[in-house]
Amino acid sequence: MTEMSTPATPGSAGPAAFQDPDTQAGIEHLAAKVAPLLQANRFDNVVDLLSLVADGIDMTDERTIEKLMAAFEGAMAAGWTLGNAARMAGSVAGNAAEPPSLFQLARELRDPEVRRGLHAAVTFLRILGRQTGP
Amino acid sequence: MAKRILVVGGGIGGTMTANSLVHKLYPEVSSGEVTVTMLSDSPDHYYKPAFMYVAFNSFSKNELKRPQRSLLRPEIQFVVDKVAHFDFAQNRVRTQSGAIYGYDYLVVSTGCVPSPERIEGLKEAGDHFYLHEPARQLADRLARIEKGRIFITVTFPKTPNVPHQCGIAPIETTLMLDEFLRRRGVREKIEIVYTYPTVSQLLRNCLFLQKQTCEVLPSIFESKGIRFKRGFTLGRVDPDRKIAYSEEGDEQDFDILMSTPPIRAVDAVLDSGASQAPNDEGWLPTDRETLQLAGHENVYVMGDTGDLPVSKAGGTCHNQSPVVVDNIASSLRIGYPTAAYDGKVIAVAQMGLEAGMPLWYDYENDVEPHPPTKLGGLLRKSVNRGLYWAVARGLV
């Protein structure tokens, strides 16, 4: 849909910039630095890499994105959940003036959120066992 | 006593703001000096901008839904209860269950409501894609139509200089429609007519709400055989004869009427008495820089709920959220708000089924349209399929 805009053209500052002595010196320095690489064909892999990237973009479709993003979201959500739990747990534990007694810790088990967390942890271990089993 | 921050609305604006408030104010939150509570009318969060893809059978409802709790930091108290009444003078809200929530700072991010019933005959005869069920209905019609005429209308709020929902959506869906029908092999038998009303915010007789984009649209539409018509402000619809009448005196027939319908604020905002917007639209008067509600320095308004001249879209909330967070944090810490919103909106427009065009604008600068690309399309697909959920968590 190239009709949406006029192709970008260099502004009037472009030619003036090239006439600047410091800019010319910089370009000459860059050309001198690149010259040996050009002469030794050291850009072949760079060009091939660009071609590979272009191939990858051409080959990528909605289904590829769907799979990649599912993996992204899975990792991101898991990291987020664990990170949240670690941060808040550390904060709560750190703010307590005294560590809770064993009796107080045992009473925590009456909290439904604690039991849900334990259930999730035990289930996690069970599924880990399933996936690492024969 | 702890300072109470109440966020009303579990859409993208409220969700990212609640998460960012906890992050920004973590020392105060972890020590119990500040609490953050979210009230939402749903236990689930829907990626609403993608309902337009539902209209083309590209997404199912479950793909667009996540449990709201899973998107919120655990420090946030999340309550599923719809706000029934805002009492801005008394710094409290009342919910449908009868509970009262007081606050020291309030964020109102309640979105807007598509209201086709505000135009005679539109609800009966028109289709839209701003909610899931209407988008499903439109999808079924678009998947079956073999020949005829699809007529596209856009309705702006009557409140001066306030845009309709998601400014670019009518163009996006028109271009998607063209490609969708070509893929189905029926495009040659179906006429697409895109129309725009006489008044579009500060512009007159354009095809879009910003001039530069308006000027490039005719060549795009002509290249695709899409007809377009300026100065068609939908006035009423005859569902039986399938004719759309404009306020300008025109009448046009259709087989499918794909509309961007009138919108309004949610009931609780409408009934709050804080809005002076005409036509009972309910937009809250919002400071364009601080985002505070007029007359209430401890109340912040985000996204669709306000009366600002920027798009009612997630890309707007994404840029307003840091301002609201900074202003609440600085008000708590030093006594006054320090951040200013510059009107920035960033989005990736879906230009047809494959191409995308990143866009940005603010109060001073309009969108500068440039050629859509496949890379832009892949970026938009990535947002749709995963990045959005990182944005909601306040990570991006």
TrEMBL record, chain A:
InterPro entries: DUF1641
Residue ranges, annotated region (Disordered): 1-21
Protein's name according to its UniProt entry: DUF1641 domain-containing protein
Extent of Low complexity compositional bias: 1-17
Source species of the chain: Marinimicrococcus flavescens
UniProtKB/TrEMBL annotation, chain B:
Pfam family, one: Pyr_redox_2
Gene3D superfamilies per the UniProt record, alphabetical: FAD/NAD(P)-binding domain
GO molecular function: oxidoreductase activity
Domain FAD/NAD(P)-binding: 4-131
InterPro entries, per database record: FAD/NAD-bd_sf, FAD/NAD-binding_dom, SQRD
Protein name per its UniProtKB record: FAD/NAD(P)-binding oxidoreductase
Taxon lineage: Bacteria, Pseudomonadati, Pseudomonadota, Alphaproteobacteria, Geminicoccales
